[in-house]
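Handout, section 3.2

Students often ask what a structure token actually looks like in practice. Rather than define it abstractly, here is a full record for EF-hand domain-containing protein. The first block is the sequence as you would receive it.
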Amino acid sequence: MGCVASREEELNNNGSNTLWKASGEEEESPTTSNSNLSNSQKKAKSFHETVHSKLAKNTYFSENDVVVLKTLFDSVAKEDDVIDESEFIEALFGKKKREECLMNQKKGQQGKFMFERRLFEKFDSNQEGYIFFDEFVRTLNVFHPRMNTNEKAKFAFHLYDVNGNGVITREELKELVSAVMKRSIFLNLDEEAIERVLDSTFEQVDIEKDGSISYEEFYRMVKENRKCIANMTIPTLTTLSTEYPEFIFLQSGG
């Protein structure tokens, strides 16, 4: 894949933290003895360990956690070292949802999976159309229980600020809520019910009464009710080294 090759060259040149297989060598287990490795394999192993160390230093994950996350990442990314949008949706919701998403794309009906696409865009911080390993780790770090409330609130706010203009409009919120409702088996609100939810939300949160929600207004709501961003914390991220994180992604593809 051309974009992957160019990305790898860029990372090798500028010393980025992103994890890559070096010189075409197969990745070695962190527990592999150096005495059993060739010089090129030792170099590759050292490179990976350095990347793990840098990611651990800049996140709440330990180096062992990063190793576990790499295993999880590889199970989704398959052979090309990146996760594309359809792989991301399959990992979260299963193979059937991925096929449905691809079918909707062909028909030009992308609204149903808008929330998942917004989440993918947040993981894809470089906006290259793929999630690289460093993006994967750094974004998951926001969901770590030790991450502060402000960073979690910022992530959630920007998720809903679809056009990126710094405020959440009624139209943006309605679009995302409607998308979630369309695929939910537990919540099936009709148009009128959704409008009532929006009315109530803006009545409580839009302090300035200007028809939009600023980050300050959003954060005030979060401080008053932390449950608003309860899904921004994944408790099991603190036990990655002892429990394989199957809670994040569906591995069966069902």
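Discussion prompt for tutorial groups: The radius of gyration is 20 Å. How would you have guessed this from the sequence alone?
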